[in-house]
Write a structure and sequence with these properties.
73% of the residues lie in helices and 0% in strands. Among the domains are: 1-154, Serine Threonine Protein Phosphatase 5, Tetratricopeptide repeat (Alpha Horseshoe); 323-466, Serine Threonine Protein Phosphatase 5, Tetratricopeptide repeat. Helix 4 packs antiparallel against helix 5 (86-101) and helix 17 (288-303) packs parallel to helix 23 (411-427). It has helices at residues 9-14, 24-39, 48-59, 64-76, 86-101, 106-119, 123-136, 141-154, 157-167, 180-191, 195-208, 213-225, 229-238, 240-243, 247-264, 267-285, 288-303, 309-319, 329-341, 345-360, 366-386, 390-397, 411-427, 431-447, 452-465. With 466 residues, it is mainly alpha-helical.
Amino acid sequence: MMASSFRDCKAWRAGGLPLSTSSNEACKLYDAILTQFVKWRNDETLGGFEGCISALQEADPNFVMGHVISTGLELVSTTSSTRLNERLASAVRRTVELANSQDISPREKLHVKAMELFSRGHFPKACDVWEDILVDHPTDMLALKFAHDAYFYMGAQTQMRDSVARVLPHWKPHMPLFSYLNGLYSFGLLETRLYDQAEKVAMEGLALTPDDAWAVHSVAHVYEMKAEVDKGLKFMESREKDWQVSDVLASHNYWHWALYFIEKGQYEAALQIYDSQVFRRCKATGSMLDTVDACSMLCRLEMEGVCVKDRWRELLQVTQPHTDDHVTLFNDMHFLMASLGAKESGTSQRLLEGLQELAKEPGDNQQHQLAGTIGVPMCQAIMEYDQGNYNRSVELLYPLRYRVVEIGGSDAQRDIFNQLLIHAAMKSENKRHQKLGRCLLVERDAMRPSSPLTERLMQRALALHN
């Protein structure tokens, strides 16, 4: 039996979010899965996500919202594509069939519709449907979280912030998961460059719930974006005990910690985190967030002149099976870094050609619609850089620099493409590109005063071009 702290049929009804099932156990398990989703944590005392999902299917195999949350979570993890994974595709179909054969509430019908749209890569439309739910049910945490994740995959920064801002007044401190809204809101504030407010809101959340790993993550971003490296190092270390229990986000928080070391030029410390935390976890879980972090980290270290070639080969074992997924452009570009780093040109070529193919007839898939104009040229730019064709790499990347946000992820994650462009411009034979590289460094310095990384690159530019 589920612990009494989770909501049964009556409690969900009382909260204005009735669920169409007569099983109290199913309602509680739904709550348990939602809670772990919000906390970024497999709670072993509950059997983790997998244990709860199996128990939920047993408690009521026809519970529509049970299918929505379990299939929705798999879709949102971007680990698998319904184009290639028949089991996942049929789970989506099964949910739609169940919804059509039962008398469920309008809110639940919308949840099914949003999940189905998301499964086809129609992210913007899925978000519209989740927002429709939130207009009438502002305390529907599942709609809020799913929308938050989908906005993140689209690089829809303002939407990510405003989606949470609109519902905040409707939440009250006694409601389950209330304190986690701070972390969600803070992240939207941060991605719209409201750093001071983002830090304040996250800290308020941490005062209520010290182990809210998403709020910690938000503060880590603030220090990253402002290049307040020592503050960041101190913060992550002082709260490590709190956030490392959130196993789904722990690796990503360790990644942020390592970025501070890379910023300071302390590569050994960064590699230590890569080996003991980031790669170890991504190999164990296959989580996409952990996997792209590993790719990004090795690529950043390599640009800094650190030799990581054996690590690329190991990482390729994790990324290679996803070569044909093409769920998000952001993932694709990171897989490409791994296949290039491992000198696996067949895999790199296959990834690019697969993307070119999907760009021809993208249908409703928002990521495939962007593949032709952004995804393919960015992949080509990364490949040209890898082959030492810096001139061509700049020509491909520079015109896209203000559109890179559309591939999704956070400013901190996308910074790798800013760095790549700067390195390509500095290494290019073209005098104009070299000048451009220096301009980009001046611009970077204005946004992140006293960044040690920028300082190093400026020194290098002077040494190269004098």
